[in-house]
Amino acid sequence: MAWQFYLFVCLFVYVCARVHTSASENGLLESALFPPVDSRDGAQVIRPGNRDFYLVLGCGSIAQAVLSREKAGGIITINIGFATAVVMALYVTFGVSGGHINPAVSFAMCTFGRMEWFKFPFYVGAQLLGAFVGAATVFGIYYDGLMAFADGKLLITGENGTAFIFATYPKPFVSVPGAFVDQVVSTMFLLLIVFAIFDSRNLGVPRGLEPIVIGLLIIVISCSLGLNSGCAMNPARDLSPRLFTALAGWGFEVFTFGNNFWWIPVVGPMIGAVLGGLIYVLFIQMHHSNPDPEVKAEPAENNLEKHELSVIM
């Protein structure tokens, strides 16, 4: 069947990526591709794809609510499900590669000099791949339910629409400028607060509790700014599942719907991430005082690099 083929292809590509990762970790490919760097770099570049399997739990929470016609879930369970999925993903992988699962966050880290630019395309490629495989997995798990939901039809909108299980779509009343501002502002708040979480010269968060605080942050942003278009805040979380639905049977209308809305969750978060980081640096970080002039305080950016600032939905 079609869904089995798509799932097989996705899993095959993912396994190939993991084999490539193992080779990189053992030094077979690293010396040929990159100059000598930290031995964990090969893992750090590819492993962001692992975290995007959190989409299995996040999109799965949407699927459960939609396919049960909100008898087994709703907006609260969706927000909690997605946020908790991110928390679990960060706990599993935070110590290895910092849990980078969001191209917008990776872009902001490179922009502020907290990650090398050469890593950026590899991180983004892994994030997109992981999100695609995660969407395919949800499709396979809920294939029977999707077919029964609308008599075998895969619809984008209406009471039997199911495309928004995988990607975000704007409400009918939302304009293109309004949707764009929505994505910029929501991601701006995300990065602004994440910078504070990892700033050792601010209140900070005790080591090991960062993922939980990030999960709470996602919940509050989703509950307050999620009405217009679902509050993606992550280009990989939206673009790869959207591409998967286009190939899986919903058609390429998933890209033209809502006045070609698809680019807004891709571009908006990138701008919002940099804006949020810039606001924190200009208005908070630059005004830190050293409590002991004899002791050089550890720069906040070093703290961020040490913890390999991660995230997010």
Automatic annotation (TrEMBL):
Any one GO BP annotation for this protein: cellular response to cAMP
Location within or outside the cell: Membrane
Membrane topology per record: Multi-pass membrane protein
Transmembrane feature ranges: 75-99, 120-143, 179-197, 209-227, 261-283
Catalytic activity: glycerol(in) = glycerol(out); H2O(in) = H2O(out); urea(in) = urea(out)
Pfam family, one: MIP
Example GO molecular function: water channel activity
Domain of life assignment: Eukaryota
GO cellular component assignments: basolateral plasma membrane
Keyword Membrane among record annotations: yes
Signal peptide stretch: 1-17
Keywords annotated in UniProt: Membrane, Signal, Transmembrane, Transmembrane helix, Transport
Keyword Transport applies: yes
Entry-linked PANTHER family: AQUAPORIN OR AQUAGLYCEROPORIN RELATED, AQUAPORIN-9
Stated family: Belongs to the MIP/aquaporin (TC 1.A.8) family.
Protein name as annotated: Aquaporin 9
Organism encoding this protein: Mus spicilegus (Mound-building mouse)
